[in-house]
Design goal:
By secondary structure, the protein is of the alpha+beta class. It contains three helices and five strands; from the N terminus they run ββββαααβ. The chain has one domain. The strands form two sheets. It has a three-stranded antiparallel beta sheet with strand order 4-1-5, covered by helices on one side. A two-stranded antiparallel sheet has the order 2-3. The protein is elongated, with a radius of gyration of 17 Å.
Length: about 120
């Protein structure tokens, strides 16, 4: 099993060719993905204070600071979180959790919107 995390949001307005006003003719949705991560490291990000599943359906502005704080905790003392990796690290590590949380922070910055978590 794994986690897929992305945001869904309205596309940025674009200049209309006839009048150059900033608007969308048809409401468009954009998705911004953080990618996929094995569920073997889910206990790591939960222990660091970020339960990604709790953010499904919520705005990315709520997730971003929590994901950043969890990432900072992991970076500050990665070895203290080794005990939370399931499977002995063969399908994910604390380092891969750090990378994934970094991608989630970037996703929130680049594509704000509603967070979707599939697991």
């Amino acid at each position: 099993m794994s986690y897929d995390v992305w945001t869904e949001g309205r596309a940025a307005p674009k200049p209309h060719p006839a009048c150059q006003a900033q608007h969308c003719e048809v409401p468009e949705f954009e998705e911004t993905e953080a990618g996929n991560m094995t569920s073997n490291v889910a206990p790591v990000w939960r222990a660091a204070g970020c339960d990604l599943a709790e953010f499904d359906g919520k705005h990315s502005d709520l997730l971003r600071p929590v994901a950043q704080e969890a990432r900072d905790r992991l970076v500050a003392d990665p070895r203290s979180f080794d005990q939370f990796v399931r499977g002995g690290g063969s399908w994910g590590t604390v380092e891969s959790a750090i990378d994934f949380l970094g991608r989630i922070v970037t996703m929130c910055d680049d594509g704000p919107g509603i967070v979707r978590v599939s697991r």
